[in-house]
Amino acid sequence: MDKSSYVYILASRPYGTLYIGVTSDLVRRIWEHQNGVVKGFTKEYEVKRLVWFESHTDIMSAITREKQLQHWNRDWKINLIQSTNATWRDLYPTLS
User: Fold this and answer.
1) Please, what's the b/e burial string for 5-30 (b: 16 or more CB within 10 A of its CB; e: otherwise)?
2) pLDDT given at position 38
3) Which of 16, 24, 54, 68 is the most exposed place for a label (fewest CB within 10 A)?
4) Taking a C-beta distance cutoff of 8 angstroms, is the pair 94, 84 a contact?
5) What local confidence, expressed as pLDDT, does residue 3 receive?
6) Rounded CA gap, 18 and 24, in Å?
7) The predicted structure's pLDDT at residue 2
8) What pLDDT is recorded for position 59?
9) Can you tell me the distance from the alpha carbon of 63 to that of 57, in angstroms, rounded to the nearest whole number?
10) How far apart are the C-alpha atoms of 80 and 34, rounded to whole Å?
């Protein structure tokens, strides 16, 4: 049985810097981003707000979707976020 996987978008603020990632443990991974556990882009640019995510039944479909979104232009990404999160609120508290 495959484990659920997730594609997610983080933002530094509404309409700010965006980051797209993939994980099999969304709660843990977003906690790592928000607490600066891993050095890199999100820590350097303070990209911590979970503004969009979707679930996949397997990691390969999640990776494929992540790559697709990474190639989208910025306006398409913003429209995707706003279609489910018009206020750009942090969705992390809703995960537990």
Assistant:
1) bbbbbbbeeeeeebbbbbbeebeebb
2) 87
3) 68
4) no
5) 84
6) 20
7) 60
8) 96
9) 11
10) 22
Report the distance separating Cα 40 and Cα 36, nearest Å.
Answer: 9
pTM (2 decimals)? 0.95
The first and second tokens of residue 35, run together, are 């607490």
DSSP string, 23-91: ES-HHHHHHHHHTT-S-SHHHHTT--EEEEEEEESSHHHHHHHHHHHHTS-HHHHHHHHHHH-TT----
13: which 2 tokens? 């603020």
Q: What is the pLDDT of residue 96?
A: 74
Q: In terms of Cα–Cα distance, which of 55, 60, 65 is closest to 4?
A: 55
Other residues' Cβ atoms within 10 Å of the Cβ of residue 61? 14
CATH T-level fold of 5-94:
GIY-YIG endonuclease (3.40.1440)
pLDDT along the chain (96 residues), means of 10: 88 98 98 95 97 97 98 98 98 93
